């Protein structure tokens, strides 16, 4: 009773999340030490391919109903797309990643299907559309916004199509015959409405700010408010910390522009007041 009280379900989840994050970091942070990495984890990680174009017109998968679809279908709305490469029966990391995505989206007022879309693709060619349907229902329920069903898609596909997509975004994975599981890292791939890889967000948990700025960046500032565009101008992605951080020079430039606008506005008000008094 005491142990269950101390190590609650939420504590267990946080502990598991930290362990999973540590594993995912290990998979892509130390490529020069491949000899020290266990054999099943070698050639596993995420390569930096930001800026590369995904062949969305050539890649085909199956949607939750089993219909064959081109990846291009999910870019026709001209919105940024979050791509996740997971597998639906993954016992560990994939669940943490999708749970982390849901947790990051809940405080965000933007909903998939309106300002952006999500495409989750299974890396296991043996998984079926029926399993994808079940996984989709589970995560939509957790997210709590049923309208997101129009914007979050769970796909399955053949080995060659999955591999082509994974290679194009830099996602390296490998099947471990001994463990009967896929070894892979964790991250989100944020694509532009044209299918270009704009930003990779590593790990299994992301600040709402980072997710929001990545989507703004991918849309070239076309979604969000004026304030969002100002934030995008004042923040830049830091490849060392793998987060968005404030760009001091840009903040100073923005502050200077705002100061000038305020001074011009005050001058115009004063000038109009003087003209009215002169006419009186």
Brief synopsis:
By secondary structure, the chain is of the alpha+beta class. Helix content is 42%, strand content 19%. Mean pLDDT is 80; it is low at 1-13, 20-35 and 248-257.
Strand content: 15-25%
Output the number of helix runs: 8
Output the radius of gyration.
23 Å
Q: Name the overall outline.
A: elongated
Distance between the termini: 84 Å
Sequence stretches where pLDDT stays below 50 over 5 or more residues: 1-13, 20-35, 248-257
Question: Biggest β-sheet: count, sense, barrel?
Answer: 5 strands, mixed
Element-by-element helix/strand order: HHEEEEHEHEHEEEEHHEEH
Structural class: alpha+beta
Strand arrangement across the biggest beta sheet: 6-5-4-9-10
Brief descriptors of the model:
single chain; 280 residues; 8 helices; elongated
Molecular structure report:
Helix content is about 40%, strand content about 20%. The protein is elongated, with a radius of gyration of 23 Å. It is α+β, with helices and mostly antiparallel strands and about 280 residues long. It has eight helices and twelve strands. It has a five-stranded mixed sheet with strand order 6-5-4-9-10, with helices on both faces. A three-stranded antiparallel sheet has the order 1-7-8.
List the helices and strands and how they pair.
Blueprint (H helix, E strand, L loop, with lengths): L1 H5 L2 H21 L15 E2 L13 E3 L5 E3 L10 E6 L6 H13 L11 E6 L6 H15 L8 E4 L3 H11 L1 E6 L4 E4 L2 E5 L5 E6 L5 H11 L7 H9 E4 L4 E4 L1 H32 L1
Parallel strand pairs: 4-5, 5-6
Antiparallel strand pairs: 1-7, 2-3, 4-9, 7-8, 9-10, 11-12
